[in-house]
Target: DUF2306 domain-containing protein
Amino acid sequence: MSDIALQQQIMPRIQLDRIVPMAVTTWFSIAAVGHWIFCVYIVAAFFPPIAENGMQGLKGMHLPSGFNEGDFIGNIAAISHVLLASIIIGGGPLQLIPAVRNRFPRFHRVLGRCYLVAAVTSALVGLYMTWTRSAIGDVISHIGISGDAVLILVCALMAVRHAMARRFVEHRRWALRLFLVASAVWFSRVGLMGWVMLTGGVGVDFKTFTGPFLYFLGFANYLLPLGMLQWYFHCQQGAAPWVKSAFVVSLGLLTIYMAVGIFAATMGLWLPRM
Ligand code: HEM
Model:
């Protein structure tokens, strides 16, 4: 084979190998900004009322079941759930930035432990709230979010086990899965608001917060990101060029949808009302 023919065969592959990480970095950069906007909202909306009025602060919050008179455990659960959310949503993307990991390894370790404890506690508390006091959705939505809680527990356990055994490649894979499932609540807000902006809310009953699209989203908000991550791992392990191209196109479309959703969620949910 001539040098030119060989070059023509190798060049597209080399470019694809560059385009896959570029697509992932673009997706991550936009997702990180979206996470931090949600984190600022969480801190601004939930911290001041709790700091000023303790448990009574729940009364004025945008929580579906908020403050329940006499339900001490439920109210504590709701408070801890929203406070821990700031560590999960704000800290998750920070853990994945290589520059932060390499330049501040101690910070990475401390935040990693806090993140893990926050995600596990929040999942357990979330399960408790969902099945004892949640005022939104129905049994299908409850099963959807409970599936996420179970996956958070599984991914956290696997990430810790591999870290303790110093199997860092496997640890990294489970930590990435943990990030995605612990961010499912973020994906669901962004997914819903993007859908409302693009379709006006087809398949959503806003009164009962049920409907075909919400049932789909209730599972897709963690299964779709997990599936995309698995596909990315496959691309990293030398998948066929067409598999990598299909990955880049799919992730590109999902990134555009996510950017629309972040914009809609920021404008509709997270910016303060004037
Ligand atoms: C671990 C990641 C999670 C984060 C960061 C998170 C974050 C939040 C936030 C910020 C809220 C307040 C509502 C809002 O402003 O949007 C909330 C409410 C709620 N979350 Fe989660 N959540 C997580 C996981 C879960 C899980 C796994 C479940 C269920 C199994 C769950 C069940 C609930 C329930 C029932 C409420 C409503 C509380 C009430 O009205 O009293 N969450 N969550």
Notes: The longest helix spans residues 3-53. Residues 108 and 195 are 35 Å apart (CA to CA).
